[in-house]
Design goal:
The structure is a single chain. This protein is an alpha/beta fold. It has three domains: about 180 residues, FAD/NAD(P)-binding domain; about 130 residues, FAD/NAD(P)-binding domain, CATH 3.50.50.60; about 120 residues, 3-Layer(bba) Sandwich (FAD/NAD(P)-binding domain), CATH 3.50.50.60. It contains eleven helices and 24 strands. The strands form six sheets. Strands 3-2-1-7-17-16 form a six-stranded mixed beta sheet. The protein has a five-stranded parallel beta sheet with strand order 8-15-9-10-11, covered by helices on one side. A five-stranded antiparallel beta sheet has the order 20-21-24-23-22, sandwiched between helices. Strand 9, helix 5 and strand 10 form a beta-alpha-beta unit. It starts with a strand and ends with a helix. The chain binds flavin-adenine dinucleotide (FAD). The site of flavin-adenine dinucleotide has 32 residues, from helix 1, strand 2, helix 2 and helix 7.
């Protein structure tokens, strides 16, 4: 009788459950026998955190709509899913994991898929370290439900301060505006963190035109509190009254339960698995608790995105069960949208920013080109701006950013494909892209932008 391999997965969302299901699929093919146990500290599994801002805005009716696969369905597939069970320590030599209730679980293979909890700085907490009722991040389904309750309780005319202008900050600002709340966005940088300044200022203008206040270069220093009630936010240079404060200042790899295990990690705690997901003998990792290899400059970067977590998890699960799939890295592509107060912007990027290119020893040339998402005589035509950067020496495409109306954002995918293949700015300028008047101009604006950069060399 063959021995069943005991696989213990910690974390039951995108990466962990992709890994678990793929391992079962591959095991059926390779003839391996797996007994998969998954520990999840919350009461939720396999949901789209990406949809939470749209639930908050009113586009999605219920948090249940965001659940891709229920706990019952995982269990029907043969997975021993234990909700409300937190891993607190691991002994890699003994191959055991200890849970918060003191249970010690043996494993043959450990999969770390613990994600990255939201950063909540000390200034956002009560002096005793507990959270205020009206201040918090947008990270989990429970957070989404709490924010909907807070929006309702605060009522029309209440003011929300959003700290941070990454894509979650922008999406939450949209949700709050569409709920009829006043919004201030505070960001310590020049605007949307994902973009170069000349592109992010377009997003800041749209936020302001939609009725939000945007304060750039604002390093938040603390909260204004009256008794136990938060009434405002201080930054170096100002104060804003606030009924609600959203923390959208990033996430940190959730690898604390591995502290003291001897496992190697990056300075931020992120794991760096090989392309098959292996981080050490009998230890695997995928998703937001990991860094990913960026192909454009061959560096590790922390890019906590669902699109990476699911691919990462699938490759890991396949390899763990005897397959050969591998995660080939990223080119740093991401996209979001801002739609409120009559404004509509699609925002996307791929590849490097200018500072990253310079840090990699490249000689970047970048230009912003303005154009139209469709032929100018069509009702679909919306303005779009494209930032294209290439390396002077090799003509290699290095990065593209897009800010514009409907249909603008996914243009970034063509640029991502060129980056993926290590192509040049000429490849982007001359490749065969689809054209008809409702979708594009005869020379698509992406190709015009690439051509303009190519002409600089
Ligand atoms: C508001 C929001 C919007 C987003 N929008 C996008 C988007 O548009 N596009 C995109 O690509 N990505 C987006 N993301 C990111 C995406 O949701 C994450 O990258 C993805 O969920 C990561 O999956 P994961 O499985 O690695 O981690 P998680 O989804 O964080 O899952 C990790 C799980 O592990 C559990 N866990 C942690 N520690 C322990 C422990 N010690 N014991 C037991 N269980 C533990 C956690 O409770 C959690 O359920 C968004 C995220 C948020 C919050």
């Amino acid at each position: 009788m063959s021995k069943r391999t005991r696989v213990l997965v910690v974390g039951a969302d995108a990466a962990g459950m992709s890994a678990a299901h793929q391992a079962l699929r591959t095991a059926r093919r390779t003839g391996r026998e797996l007994a998969i146990t998954v520990l999840e500290r919350s009461t939720h599994t396999s949901y789209s955190a990406c949809g939470i801002p749209y639930w908050m805005a009113g586009d999605v009716d219920s948090g249940d709509d965001l659940v891709a696969r229920t706990a019952e369905r995982h269990r029907e597939a043969g997975i021993d899913l234990r909700l409300g069970t937190e891993a607190v320590a691991a002994d890699l030599a003994a191959r055991t994991v200890t849970t918060a209730s003191g249970e010690v679980l043996d494993y043959d293979e450990l999969v770390v898929a613990t994600g990255a909890p939201a950063i909540v700085p000390d200034w956002a907490l009560r002096p005793d370290g507990t959270p205020y009722d009206t201040v918090g991040p947008v990270k989990t389904l429970d957070d989404g439900a709490a924010w909907l309750d807070r929006f309702d309780a605060a009522g029309d005319g209440a003011h929300v301060v959003v700290v941070g202008a990454g894509y979650i900050g922008v999406e939450v600002a949209e949700a709050a505006l569409r709920r009829g709340l006043g919004v201030t966005v505070l960001t310590r940088g020049h605007g949307l963190a994902l973009l170069e300044e000349e592109m992010s200022e377009r997003v800041a203008v749209a936020l302001c035109d939609a009725g939000a206040e945007v304060v750039l270069g604002a390093e938040v220093t603390g909260l204004e509190v009256d008794g136990d009630r938060v009434t405002g936010v201080h930054w170096d240079g100002g104060t804003r009254d606030a009924d609600l404060v959203v923390l959208a200042i990033g996430v940190r790899p959730g690898t604390a339960f591995l502290d003291g295990s001897g496992l190697e990690a990056a300075d931020n705690g992120a794991l760096r698995p090989d392309p098959h997901g292996r981080v050490a003998e009998h230890v695997w990792a995928a998703g937001d608790c990991c860094e990913v290899r960026r192909r454009v400059d061959d560096r590790w970067v922390f890019r906590p995105l669902g699109t990476h977590a699911t691919k990462h998890g699938r490759a890991l699960g396949d390899s763990l069960a005897g397959g050969t799939l591998s995660f080939p890295g990223v080119v740093d592509t991401s996209i979001t949208r801002f739609a409120a107060g009559g404004e509509y912007l699609e925002i996307a990027r791929t590849g490097l920013g200018r500072a990253e290119a310079e840090a990699a020893g490249l000689d970047p040339v970048a230009l912003v080109t303005e154009g139209s998402t469709a032929s100018g005589y069509m009702p679909e035509a919306d303005p779009v701006a494209l930032w294209v950067m290439a390396d002077r020496g090799t003509r290699r495409l290095l990065g593209v950013q897009v800010v514009g109306g409907r249909g603008a954002g996914k243009r970034v995918d063509a640029a991502a494909a060129v980056l993926w293949a290590g192509g040049t700015v000429d490849d982007l300028a001359w490749m065969d892209l689809a054209y008809a008047p409702p979708f594009s101009t005869a020379w698509d604006v992406l190709q015009i932008a690439a051509r303009r950069v190519a002409e600089r060399f």
